[in-house]
Every structure is written in C-alpha cells, then in structure tokens.
Automatic annotation (TrEMBL):
Pfam families: 7tm_4. One of its GO terms (cellular component) is plasma membrane. This is Olfactory receptor. One of its GO terms (molecular function) is G protein-coupled receptor activity. Keywords: Cell membrane, G-protein coupled receptor, Membrane, Olfaction, Receptor, Sensory transduction, Transducer, Transmembrane, Transmembrane helix.
Length: 313
C-alpha cells in the first residue's frame, strides 16, 4: 500500500492566480502584453548587437547574451501561466514540472553569473582602461560565458536530479503559479532534509558569491571615479555602469528574498508575490533600461529602423 501511494502522483496541479473569470481575462491580457514586449525588446537589442559592428565590444557582447537569457527565462513559466488563465487547465506532468524547474534554474543561474561578468567588464574598463582590450579579449569573454553556462548546468542538475527522485504522495497541488523546488518539496512523502540543505547551500553560495563580487567591483569603480578630477569625465564613466546597476538591483532583490526564507506557508505566499517580479517584470525592464539609458543602443536602433524604411521604399 505504501509503495502504491508513493507512485500515485502522475501529474501536478498548479495554483490558479485567481478564480474570478473577469480577472483571469485581465491577467491574461496583461501577461500577453508583457511577454510580447519582453520578446520584442530583447530581440531588438540582440539584433542591434549582432548587426551593428560598432557594438562588437565586450560590454555589448554580454548585453546580447543577457537579452537572449531574458527571452528564454521568461518563456519557461509565462506561456504555461497564460494557458492556465485562458483554458483553466492547470495540470502539468511530473516530468514536465521537473523540466520547467531545470530550465528556470539553468537560465536564472546563468543570468546571475552573466551579471557578475558584466560587473567585472565595467571594473576593467574603468580601473584598467589601458589593459582593457587585452584583459577583455574575445577568448576571455567567451571563457566567461562558457564558465557561466557550465556552472549553471551543474547547479541546475544538482537541484533537479535529487528532486526528481523524491516520491510524491501527500498531494499533487503545487502552491505556486509555476513549478519550483520549495513548493514541490512540501509534497514529498519522505525525508527532505538533504534536499533542503543542498538547495540552501547551492542557492546561497551563488547569490552570496556573485553579489559580493559585484559589490567589490563597484567599490573599486567608485574609488577610481573619486580620483577623477573632471566631473564631466566622472559622469561619463559612471553612466556606463548605471544601466547594469539598475538591472542588478531588480534581479537580485526578488532573487535573494525568495531563496533566503525557509519553506513555510508564509514564505511560499511571499514567493508567489516576488515570482512575478523575478520571472516576468525584470526581463521586461532590461531592454527598457538599456534602450533608454544607452545612447549607442538608441542610435543603432534608429539606424536599423531608418535602413528598413529606405529598403522598403
């Protein structure tokens, strides 16, 4: 009987964002607009970085990778969430749920490490400008990207493999809008101490190490900027960092708040609130932040748009 109960769960039922049909329609329209805006904005930046040879620099190489990650990260939970609002089908298979967890952690961790690489790029550009082209060459940038993906792959597998081996028998109702490890652990009918410890160690290590490296990078940057006598040059140097700092703030805020809390009912309720900011709002804001604050990106976008108009004529 015990074995039969442990293998009874074949699919999970995700939490509905609202039970009112009217609000479901509104939420679907809002999510659709945000999702399309995310795709259009990040695809535009990625296209500009690829097509404009003036942007073939380390900073924009990382920005292009960030846009790609925003596209795939938001595409993990949002389409399923919109489908649930439209069709009221909140079911997802066990392996579909595990797959969603795998890709969310893979892309989320990669973006975390990429933001750290971007901070290092700004540190070298401002603190060691004469050696910038040597330190941040093509091979160095490619190595940073490869390392980010490799470490993220290891992190994602270390989370999803132990989770996939858990027996689920208490309930199949996931108390979240999409699949995530913390609400899934509450459904396991076995000791989850190892999973909780592993989850805490991995996520805390990545969050603490990367945030510390970013903080130290900007400490050195600020120290360097204070030594620049010309206020005009100081503002120009710091303007290249403001977009990245804004993205870091919006990304790390909800990320850290989600992972430092224990898996209680109250924390899961807070997780659901911050999940929207982490998985949906942040990828929408990234292209807005870089498009509005970066003059080179705006000039390139205008050039491409004008070129397309001339081509049509």
């Amino acid at each position: 009987m015990e074995q039969r109960n442990q293998t009874s769960v074949k699919e999970f039922i995700l939490l509905a964002m609202t039970s009112a049909p009217y609000y479901k329609t509104i939420l679907f329209i809002v999510f659709l607009i945000l999702y399309l805006f995310t795709l259009i904005g990040n695809v535009s930046i990625l296209t500009v970085v690829i097509m404009d040879r003036r942007l073939h620099t380390p900073m924009y190489f990382f920005l292009g990778n960030l846009s790609f990650l925003d596209i795939v990260l938001v595409s993990c939970p949002v389409p399923k969430m919109m489908a649930g609002l439209l069709t009221q089908d909140l079911k997802i298979s066990v392996w579909g749920c595990i797959t969603q967890i795998y890709f969310i952690h893979l892309f989320g961790c990669t973006e975390t490490l990429l933001l750290t690489s971007m901070a290092y790029d700004r540190y070298v550009a401002i603190c060691n400008p004469l050696r910038y082209n040597i330190v941040m060459g093509k091979s160095s940038c490619s190595l940073l990207i490869f390392t980010s993906w490799f470490l993220s792959l290891f992190h994602s597998l270390s989370q999803t493999i132990p989770t996939s081996r858990l027996p689920f028998c208490y309930s199949n109702h996931v108390s979240h809008f999409f699949c995530d490890i913390k609400p899934l652990l509450q459904l396991a009918c076995t000791d989850i101490s190892f999973n909780e410890i592993l989850f805490t160690i991995m996520t805390a290590s990545i969050s603490v190490i990367t945030s510390t490296l970013i903080f130290l990078s900007y400490c050195f940057i600020c120290t360097r900027l204070l030594k620049i006598r010309s206020s005009k040059e100081r503002r120009k140097a710091f303007s290249t960092c403001t977009s990245h700092l804004t993205v870091v703030f919006f990304f790390y805020g909800p990320l850290i708040s989600r992972f430092i809390r224990p898996a209680t009912n109250d924390s899961l309720e807070q997780d659901r609130q911050t999940a929207v900011l982490y998985a949906i709002i942040t990828p929408v804001l990234n292209p807005v932040i870089y498009a509005l604050r970066n003059q080179e990106v705006k000039r390139s976008l205008k050039s491409i748009v004008l070129g397309l108009r001339i081509f049509k004529k």
